[in-house]
Design brief:
Blueprint: H1 6-39, H2 41-49, H3 51-68, H4 74-102, H5 109-130, H6 139-159, H7 162-193, H8 202-235
Helix pairs in contact: 1-2, 1-4, 1-7, 1-8, 3-4, 4-8, 5-7, 5-8, 6-7, 7-8
């Protein structure tokens, strides 16, 4: 890859800055929503009673944002992402509480998984930003990997084997680490192909929100798979 011009460097830094700002905001909203849910008995009861409805709403927000990103305004995209982040915090609250309690008096699996996730995510984001390898050729492989992972997870619900669960978790961590690098490279190429003023444009802001959603999903999936590994290992001791 050729060295970047000063204008390209400014555009790239600005776009990625907006993207990671949105991602960080989403993570904060998720954490706050989860905290409110576990500390408010009424809200926690509501989440438990309407869990599947909330999950369906989450999926609707994710797919809706993906399908409508070219038709909606940047403000609407930001609102949809924010709603999704809050809903995700609510639906994750029960899982986070269960694993936190599992930690007992020792280090919480939630904290350990989060710190490890941050390290892995940051490393793979740097790899995706700096690598000269064209990762787009692996897009289909990653997509099929995610489909296979979903199918294996559904099968594991019925089988309930700890060995299979561990394999799924390890594969999930590896797969979404790779997807993080893939998404990061796509965002870099998007910014560079957008031209001057891309970051300040309506489309640039929408793409920053959409890019934040992709990176957010990568981070959350790595975190959840690691949480299963750390929690499972602790439970077996």
């Amino acid at each position: 890859m050729h060295s970047l011009t000063q204008t390209q460097s400014v555009t790239l830094r600005s776009f990625l800055g907006r993207t990671f700002s949105w991602m960080t905001a989403g993570m904060v909203m998720t954490a706050i929503a989860a905290w409110f849910a576990v500390t408010n008995e009424g809200l926690f009861s509501f989440v438990r009673s309407n869990y599947f409805m909330l999950v369906l709403l989450e999926l609707g927000m994710v797919f809706g944002l993906g399908f409508l990103i070219n038709r909606i305004s940047a403000a609407t995209a930001g609102i949809m992402f924010s709603i999704y982040a809050v809903l995700n915090g609510l639906t994750l609250s029960g899982i986070l509480l269960a694993y936190h309690v599992m930690g007992g008096s020792g280090p919480s699996p939630v904290v350990s998984a989060f710190i490890t996730t941050a390290g892995l995510f940051g490393t793979m984001a740097v790899v995706g930003y700096t690598t000269k390898m064209d990762l787009s050729r692996f897009g289909t492989i990653f997509f099929m990997g995610v489909i296979g992972l979903v199918i294996a997870s559904i099968v594991n619900i019925w089988i309930g084997g700890s060995a299979l669960s561990m394999v799924i978790s390890v594969v999930g961590v590896i797969l979404f680490c790779a997807i993080t690098a893939y998404d990061m490279q796509k965002l870099k190429e998007m910014a560079l192909s957008g031209g001057d003023g891309f970051t300040q444009s309506e489309m640039g802001e929408k793409m920053a929100v959409f890019g934040a959603l992709n990176l957010y999903l990568d981070f959350i999936n790595i975190f959840l798979f690691l949480l299963r590994l750390f929690g499972g290992g602790r439970s077996n001791n």
